[in-house]
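Section 5.1 Outputs to date
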Amino acid sequence: MVDMLLNKPLADCTERELEDLQSASLDERKRRAFQELMRVAILYVDIYGYDNGLNEMGEDLFKKVAPDNLHPGGWDGLLRHVMKISG
């Protein structure tokens, strides 16, 4: 149904149709983000090897990405979250 809405002017869409488009758009963005994450993970494994690839990726994520205001708690906040979800 969403594909049919892509050919319809937004001004002619109902509120429900707009919500469906927004939801489908978000789902697609999440799918693409995960696809990109997997591409990057494979690249890290290719560069650093099977034993160290994801470790290096994690280290870069914690030390270089999270502190740049991309996680509200910085790298230590991200680490706390990872520890929480890991059981």
